[in-house]
Amino acid sequence: MIFGNFFTAIAGLLDTVLNLYFWIVIISALLTWVRPDPYNPIVRFLHAVTEPVYYRLRRWLPFLILGGFDLSPIVVLLIIQFVQRFLVQSLYNIGMGPHLPL
User: Fold this and answer.
1) Structural domain containing residue 80
2) Domain assignment of residue 54, yes or no
3) Measuring CA to CA, which of 2, 59, 78, 84 is 20 to 30 A from 65?
């Protein structure tokens, strides 16, 4: 029962963090359309949180930039969705599995 609660707590925490990062990526992508002030603390935070992930993706998959359009945010969102559907759901299933009495 303790391990089940542990896996359920990890799944819930991971799901919350992934949801938060999902919205950060969306907001960051939307801000690229309006050219915000680069010295704004919120813009700097969004850039600092998302750009390292985009940079790694662009290094591994250089074809993500097509005709001046950066598709890295879309790939990040797809990866987040996959991790939520596969890993988080698997952790929930492990946590909710049959509990053996001690």
Assistant:
1) 2-94
2) yes
3) 84
* Predicted confidence (pLDDT) per residue in 16-55, tens digit: 999 999 999 999 999 988 988 989 999 999 999 999 999 9
pTM here is 0.85
**39 lies in some domain:** yes
Instruction: Give the DSSP H or E segment for 41.
Output: helix 41-60
Secondary structure E strands in 1-102: 65-66, 69-70
> pLDDT tens digit string along 70-96?
899 999 999 999 999 999 999 998 888
- Both tokens of 44, joined, read 């700097």
- The tally of domains found in the chain comes to 1
Reduced DSSP (H G I as helix, E B as strand, rest coil) percent helix, strand, coil of the chain, to 5: 75, 5, 20
Count of residues for the chain? 102
